[in-house]
Design a protein that fits this description.
Chain B: It is an enzyme of class 2 (transferase). The complex is a heterodimer. Chain A is mainly alpha-helical. Chain A has helices at about 5-25, 30-40, 45-50, 60-70, 80-95, 125-160, 175-195, 230-245, 250-260, 265-280, 285-295, 300-320, 320-340, 345-360, 365-370, 370-380, 385-395, 415-435, 440-450, 460-465, 480-490, 495-510, 515-530, and strands at about 160, 165-170, 465, 475. Chain B has 15 helices and four strands. Chain B is mostly helical. Chain B has helices at about 15-25, 30-35, 40-55, 65-70, 90-100, 105-110, 115-125, 145-155, 165-175, 190-205, 215-220, 240-250, 260-270, 290-300, 320-325; strands at about 280, 285-290, 310, 315. The chains are: A mainly alpha, B mainly alpha.
Chain lengths: ~525, ~325
């Protein structure tokens, strides 16, 4: 049951009565007010004539008065005799016609136009309308101030002297800041009044000299491009400054803005790099900004290409000082590791790390700790194939001993035996942690090839993962990769029967999805045996 | 291969829905993603159009408007940008050439564009004559994708003689890895996408002799996971796009039978949106045109009924490459 509230009810009634009274006695809307004013300035004959539908409805007296009034609107008055004039004024006095200047047109409900929402302004209440007029006045005032700013800027640029003070015109930072604030106000007013949108560049006096170039496309083109407004505005300014080959701090800021909206836009990155070169922006400033962008957009690769260009550009300035190179290598790796905390297999970041290793010569562990860093990553996730791949690169491309141009797939006599021993032991230790992990098995094979060693040299190690092969119940295989490698070891040693058994069991039980591959292996060995 | 009507429901391809999905891409201009992918626009047209050809609906995108758009992306230097007003770049130039090849419009390039010769010069100028590699643009980023793109586009236009093929082949050899695969640059981790670009480039110039097919095929076949899908690198998740990179590579060395075809069929078809069309990276995810194309090319390589044959080297319908290059087998 609703609560009784007599007091509230009575109050509401009072209010609605007051409103009604108001409605009847005073004009509410702009149109009503204009209509009331029009009514006030109309002679009663006119009003009556309009209301009755024509002059024929007037009485004789009214008609006389009307005719006399009508004549006062013309030059014919001077043609009248003195007597007639006297009579006229008597009539005028009798009709008590209200005085008015000129002719007021009868207001039309739609003469004020529509506002940004399509509402008829004539239907505005008077206070609403006054508010609108107030805003329009404000806008006009701001525009006037803006014009004087523009003149001052022009005079200042031409070095003119202010005749009232005798001093040169100078545009100060405060002037610009004031204009910036003013434009913001103007933009807000325009949006409020007319629904016009002014973008952040068209309201910034710093960009006044630029005429933006909007995207031009044929009507109805396939794959035409539609932009949200902010992005479209920024791009139109970008086109303009690029066309003018401008390189400046504001262009740098513009690229920053666009990249924050769409980091995959490769043209913006190229232009940004050109700005960096022209303005000689310090490397670390750019790197600091870039770090934030890289963490915001993990999948983007333009960022890493940009970083590579930066390092190429700046390396000559630090290459003479090993300490500086070392410091830079350390800080770059710290950031790369921050990226890997988000995605430890990010291909672009790994490619950059290799570039960095080569460019900065981070080969020696004692000096740069790169091998330690990779070991740390493999310890964290022994299945990280990217880390394994980087380790192979790091160990077998070291220019101290590796033969230049030696491919990853061929033996390299330059690699010392102790390095090969160390890497074999390393891979084996990691296989023990997770025998079904592909990465260290591939790595082990790769190391043996590099070291020019036979697969059979690790037979004892591999065999421990396979027991009682082919003996139904007793068969134990702890790693299909071990079984595969064992087959290759048997094949290498010419023990075809044992190799065939391994492949057979792989296809039947231990790696069924590649049945086709194992069968092919078996067939091709038999074919080779038959033809030899 | 089984007849279409014999396949169980879950192995049916939603052809009509896919055609509709690709057609709808161009009318989604009010969507946020649309402008974020502007830098891929020309690629997007290539992906969509190739998919439509495989679905045997080549007329589903208007030919004249396609030509107009492609030519509007061309620069004075002959190269193409991703969209009008974007810098010229190798990747978009290749897409432009592929699109024009697909719709048999090289004559329009001569009549209304800057002509084949200018495109060929743009690409050839991006080769580093010392190392044989190719850059993507004047800024010099180099990787095997660009090398493949260059060979692809130049051979379609009959202009391979403009570049130093031997040096480029040497570079590809240097990108081979200890595990049998190829990486982005010498020493970079093996990646199925990069393997595709290296093999296809070698295949275009008939220099497959350096490929260790068995070792590479083994690595590629190891990309199949128990759910039937393929991954791009060891210990990574499966993704429909590798149905193309891995499978086309296996096709180039004649070893597609080393993986379980039915299991891969099932995986790709489970990634379809059967109502609104399109194929996603994994079952249940959002579809996109890129995965749609590579799901379809994967199915085509496996011989799914009702699809046009894809050329594993060019990623164009076989009918297109045969028209331009003749039969290569």
């Amino acid at each position: 049951m609703p609560p009784k509230n007599n007091k509230g009810g009575a109050k509401a009634k009072e209010l609605s009565e007051a409103k009604q009274e108001n409605d009847n006695s005073r004009p509410q809307t702009v149109f009503e007010r204009a209509q009331a004013a029009y009514d006030l300035t109309r002679p009663p004959y006119d009003k009556e004539r309009e209301e009755l539908g024509g002059l024929h409805a007037l009485s004789t007296v009214e008609k006389t008065a009307y005719a006399n009034w009508f004549c006062t609107g013309s030059d014919e008055l001077s043609c009248l005799s003195k007597k007639a004039q006297k009579e006229l004024w008597k009539q005028v006095n009798e009709t008590n016609r209200p005085l008015r200047r000129g002719q007021i047109d009868q207001p039309k409900p739609d003469q004020w136009g529509k506002d940004k929402l399509g509402r008829n302004i004539g239907d505005y209440t008077v206070p609403q309308y006054e508010q609108r007029i107030e805003k329009q006045a404000q806008l006009t005032g701001l525009k006037a101030l803006g014009r004087s700013f523009a003149s001052k800027r022009l005079y200042a640029s031409k070095g003119l002297v202010d005749s009232s003070t005798g001093e040169r015109y100078i545009l100060t930072e405060e002037d610009i800041q004031a204009e910036r604030e003013r434009r913001k106000e103007m933009a807000a007013l325009k949006k409020d009044l007319y629904g016009e949108k002014m973008g952040s560049y068209s309201t910034d006096p710093e960009w006044d000299d630029i005429v933006p170039i909007p995207q031009m496309e044929p009507e109805g083109a396939l794959a035409a491009i539609a932009y949200p407004e902010d992005y479209a505005e920024s791009m139109s300014y970008l086109r303009a400054v690029m066309a003018a080959n401008e390189y400046s701090p504001r262009c740098l800021k513009l690229t920053e803005h666009i990249i924050s909206m769409n980091p995959a836009h490769y043209t913006v990155w190229l232009y940004r790099f050109a700005n960096i070169q022209h303005l000689d922006i310090p490397l670390l400033d750019e790197i600091e900004w870039l770090n934030g962008v890289a963490l915001d957009f993990l999948k983007n690769y333009q960022i890493w290409h940009h970083r590579q260009l930066l390092v190429e550009h700046y390396y000559p300035t630090i290459s003479g000082s090993p300490d500086e190179v070392k410091r830079f290598a350390k800080s770059e790796r710290a950031f790369v590791m921050e990226m890997f905390a988000e995605d430890a297999k990010n291909y672009h970041v790994w490619s950059y790390r290799q570039f960095l290793t080569r460019k900065l010569g981070m080969w020696e562990n004692e000096e740069h700790g790169e091998l330690d860093s990779i070991e740390g990553m493999i310890d964290e996730d022994v299945r990280n194939n990217s880390a394994w791949s980087h380790r192979f690169f790091l160990v077998f491309s070291n220019p101290r001993y590796a033969t230049p141009e030696s491919h990853a797939t061929e033996p390299d006599a330059g690699v010392p035996a102790d390095v090969v021993d160390r890497e074999v032991a390393y891979a084996q230790a990691k296989i023990q942690l997770a025998p079904q992990n592909q990465s260290p098995w591939n790595y082990l094979r790769g190391v043996l090839v590099k070291g020019g060693r036979e697969l059979g040299s690790v037979k004892g190690f591999v065999e421990q993962y396979v027991q009682n092969l082919g003996e139904a119940e007793k068969e134990e295989v702890h790693s299909s990769h071990a079984l595969e490698q064992l087959a290759d070891i048997y094949e290498e040693a010419g023990d075809k029967e044992k190799a065939d058994l391994c492949w057979k069991r792989l296809g039947e039980k231990w790696d069924r999805i590649r049945f086709g591959y194992w069968e092919w292996k078996r067939r091709s060995m038999k074919t080779a045996a038959a033809s030899s | 291969m089984a007849q279409l009507q014999d396949l169980p429901d879950e192995l049916q391809l939603a052809t009509a829905a896919h055609v509709q999905y690709i057609q709808s891409l161009d009318s989604r201009k009010d969507e946020y993603e649309y402008w974020l992918t502007e830098h891929l626009r020309l690629n997007g047209v290539y992906w969509g159009l190739t998919a439509l050809h495989l679905l045997k609906k080549p007329e589903a995108l208007p030919r004249d408007a396609t030509i107009d758009f492609v030519l509007s992306c061309q620069h004075e230097n002959g190269g193409f940008g991703a969209a009008p007003g974007h810098d010229a770049h190798m990747l978009y130039t290749v897409s432009a050439v592929q699109i024009l090849a697909l719709i048999d419009a090289f004559d329009e390039l001569e009549k209304r564009g800057k002509g084949k010769a200018a495109v060929g010069k743009f690409i050839a100028d991006l080769q580093n004559r010392e190392t044989g590699t190719f850059a993507g643009d004047e800024w010099g980023e180099e990787d095997t994708r660009f090398l493949y793109g260059a060979f692809n586009a130049l051979s379609l236009m009959g202009l391979l003689h403009l570049v130093d093929v031997d040096k480029a082949v040497d570079h590809i050899k240097a990108c081979s890895n200890f595990d049998g695969g190829y990486g982005l640059t010498p020493g970079a981790e093996s990646h199925s996408g990069q393997i595709f670009t290296c093999l296809a480039a070698l295949s275009i110039v008939g220099r497959m002799e350096s490929v260790e097919a068995d070792k590479l095929g083994k690595w590629l076949s190891e990309r199949q996971l128990p759910n039937g899908g393929l991954n791009g690198r060891p210990e990574k998740q499966e993704d429909v796009c590798y149905s193309w990179w891995v499978l086309s590579s296996l096709a180039m060395i004649d070893r597609t039978h080393w993986i379980d075809r039915n299991a891969l069929f099932g995986f790709i078809l489970r990634c379809q949106d059967t109502e609104k069309g399109g194929i996603s990276d994994r079952p249940g995810n959002m579809v996109d045109v890129w995965h749609t194309l590579f799901g379809l090319t994967g199915l085509s390589l496996l011989g799914y009924p009702g699809l046009d044959d894809i050329d594993p080297v060019y990623c164009l319908p076989k009918s297109t490459t045969e028209r331009i290059l003749g039969s290569r087998n």
